[in-house]
Amino acid sequence: MNPNKGNSILTPFPEVNVVLQDLLKDVQRILDGNLVGMYLEGSLANGDFDQDSDIDFVVVTDKEIEDNVFSALQMAHERINLLDTQWSTNLEGSYLSKHAVRRHHPEHTRFPNIERGFGERLKMIRNDETWNIHRHILHKCGITLIGSDPATLIDPISPDKLRQAMLPALHDWAAQILNNPNEIANQGYQSYTVLSLCRIIYTLEFGDIVSKRKAANWVKESQGGNWNLLIDQAWIGRHNPQLLASPEDVNQTLDLIRYAMDKASSVL
After folding, report:
1. Which of 136, 152, 168 is the last residue of a domain?
2. 94 in helix, strand or coil?
3. CB-based contact 72:125 (threshold 8 Å)
């Protein structure tokens, strides 16, 4: 097992490196011989990372994690969550066995996961084919912190399977927002919704996963300016998450959800 760059974890963000190095040490100590590799995905991998991003990581193990190991990892994350840096509460990641990460299989859908936020704890979740999004990013541009190339651990995912992975997000997550627009009353979640929808629309069109910025720029360029102001406001609102979104932005976001749903119906 060969750590990337001598185990120094060189991202362009020194404070991020400190938190990742801390986490990697705990992961190596707790998992020991069960560790296959640790990787970065999400915005750090696709070049879209900024001060408002989270740190998306994936740890791959040889075998499923047992209860005592889960408890040790949970304690490690609780300690890291209290570190005096903004990035300690912005870790978001999963622990998957090599069988679970390779391809979607109904027998390997339950694994430890942690989300960003102060006080968040490692928990067991059950996921579906939407996790193909993460597999694709890892396969395409995942960053190795320790272990072998992630592309050797994951089967390639077809464009049609990536398009299919968008459906649960639209039919569950986005539909819930349509039924309860108050969920996007604040700029933080409203902006996140707009930019995530741009990625979904891009994937429906091309069968690929790209960064939020690339997808948002494509939507602006390809849709005759219909969503330009909404998208521009989303980048601003992303940096002011606690402020209220304007009624116009909320209504346009709901329209964008409907547009994405219609596109999915026509493509799939």
Report:
1. 152
2. strand
3. no
Burial class (CB in 10 A: 0-12, 13-18, 19+), 107: exposed
* Exposed/middle/buried for residue 73 (C-beta within 10 Å: 0-12, 13-18, 19+): buried
Which residue matches tokens 């990013």? 137
Range of the domain at 183: 159-267
- Of 103, 132, 152, the residue at which a domain comes to its end is 152
Q: 9 and 124: one domain?
A: yes
**Which is nearest to 70 in space by CA: 108, 4, 114?**
114
CA distance 146 to 59: 9
Same domain (yes/no): 180, 76: no
Residue 36 sits in the same domain as residue 111 = yes
Global pTM value: 0.91
Residue of 260, 130, 239 whose CA lies nearest to 194:
260
Helices (H), the chain: 14-31, 42-46, 67-81, 98-102, 132-141, 159-168, 175-179, 187-206, 212-222, 228-237, 247-267
Sign of CA dihedral 124, 55, 76, 60: positive
In the chain, the number of structural domains is 2
Do 137 and 183 sit in the same domain of this protein? no
* Tens of pLDDT, residue by residue, the chain (268 residues): 444 444 567 788 999 999 999 999 999 999 999 999 999 999 999 888 988 899 999 999 999 999 999 999 999 999 999 999 999 999 999 999 999 999 998 888 999 999 999 999 999 999 888 999 999 999 999 999 999 999 999 999 999 999 999 998 899 999 999 999 999 999 999 999 999 999 999 999 999 999 999 999 999 999 889 999 999 999 999 999 999 999 999 999 999 999 999 999 998 7
